[in-house]
Design goal:
This protein is α+β, with helices and mostly antiparallel strands. 25% of the residues lie in helices and 36% in strands. It starts with a strand and ends with a helix.
Length: 160
């Protein structure tokens, strides 16, 4: 499933698209063994496409939720991505022309790229997260006795 615009329909009037697409449909490859961004929910989009002389101008909003692990404390948390003013200019002619398949233009690669660029490299559960807290361990009584044995040997060396 992809997000597509019908070019012939766009010649007659502006096109409004809204709906949802899952992470698999977007081609998001998340959740590798060491990734801090584990998975994504469904993308909700509301887009308007306008055609000027040559390029297609698309603008609207994108919303998606991701399951992440904090880079400091490794606790799971939810990251909500909200791009209220997403836009894209797609030329139909020239060197940078986009591929038109049949009568459709696929917006999915541009949306996927902007979503991936918007993800944090080191997601934090909270800006004030201090990370993992390490507690100082106290030595058991047995280990304390062993250090006393060595101190007796040190005293014997000093007497010589």
């Amino acid at each position: 499933m992809t997000i597509q615009i019908h070019i012939d329909q766009l010649k007659e009037q502006d096109v409004h698209l809204d709906g949802e697409i899952d992470a698999e449909g977007l081609g998001l490859d998340l959740g590798a063994k060491h990734d801090l961004v584990r998975s994504a929910a469904t993308l909700l989009y509301q887009l308007d496409a306008l055609r000027t002389d040559d390029p297609v101008f698309v603008h609207g909003s994108l919303k998606m939720t991701f399951q992440c692990e904090c880079a400091r404390c490794v606790k799971p948390f939810v990251f909500n991505m909200d791009i209220p003013e997403w836009s894209c200019i797609l030329p139909l002619e020239g060197d940078e022309a986009i591929e038109v398949i049949g009568e459709y233009v696929d917006l999915t690669p541009w949306i996927r790229e902007d979503i991936l660029l918007g993800l944090p490299h080191h997601p934090l559960c909270d800006e004030s997260c201090r990370g993992l807290v390490f507690k100082q361990e106290t030595l058991p009584a047995e280990d304390v006795e062993e250090t006393n044995r060595w101190s007796a040997l040190d005293q014997w060396k000093q007497q010589r």
